[in-house]
Structures are given as C-alpha cells and as structure tokens.
Amino acid sequence: MATPPLPSVPASPEVIEIERALTRITYLSTRTRQHERLMALAGVPLDRAAVALLRQMADSEPLRPGELANRLGVEASHVTRQVQQLQKSGYVDRIPDPDDRRAQRIKLTRTGQEAVDRIRDAGARGMQLALDDWSPEELRQLASLFHRMVDDFLRHGEELIEQEKAASANLA
Fold this sequence. Notes:
The protein has 172 residues and is mostly helical. It is built from seven helices and two strands. It has a two-stranded antiparallel ribbon with strand order 1-2. 13% of the residues are buried. Pfam families: MarR.
C-alpha cells in the first residue's frame, strides 16, 4: 500500500516545537532505565512490550489478538508471543469471542488489572512530583490539550487508512 504524500505546506514553527517536545518526552519515557525504575516502584516485573499490551487492554473491552496488534501498531506475531507469556504469568486469559466462537479474545485477569493499576499509580506519582509547581488550571489545560491532540491523531490516522483503502480499490 502506498503511503499518501505529506502535505506541501510546511509545518508552522509551533508545530515544529510540539513535535520536538513530543520526541523528547517519548525518549525520556521509553528509556530502559526509566522503565526499570517504574517497574521497581510498581513492583511489577514486566518488559516494555508487555506493559504496553496490558495498558491497551485495560483501556478497552477484551480484544482479539489481531485487534490488539493493530491498536499497538505491531505485527500480530508479537502480540501472540506476548499474550502467551502474559497468560503463563497470570496477567491475561483467553475467552471465547461472543461474535465468533471459533475465535478468542484476550482479557485482563485481576492480577493483570492490579499490575496496570500499580504501574499507572507509580507513573502518576512520579509525574505529580515533576509537575508539582504547576497550578491545577495549568494541569487541566495540559490534560485537555493532550487528549484533544491524541483524538486528532487518531482521527487523522483513520482518515489515512480510509484514503489508502480507496486508493487500493481504485487500482483493483
């Protein structure tokens, strides 16, 4: 599938600064040392891929492995391996798909939900310390703008997928 071209209009200086800030925060939050510290504080012995999967599952209904892979932007085989490991450790279970009994969905167990809760709590406490000098109003504004940005990213991504499907259908 061909990727649609980028817009011909250059990014504004503000958008360039937002992209730079997001790159920095992504780097800081995904460093191995940061992950290990967070897992130690949460008391959860999981790697980053497992945490991403558990967090995604905590924010949704039970999903098929392929749906999880799509939401995480990874290959289905990666999710299958992760789910097998998480199931062995008691963090997730497989349940029949109510729409297709031949298929299965993955759901968090109580242990999995407790792990996500501990990870989120440890992360939030660390963030609270870092943002301690911010006013409640500044924090509300930041949270609102972050949610709006994520929603816009998701909507834009869905629009790109629809454009790619339409382009593929026109080629067929």
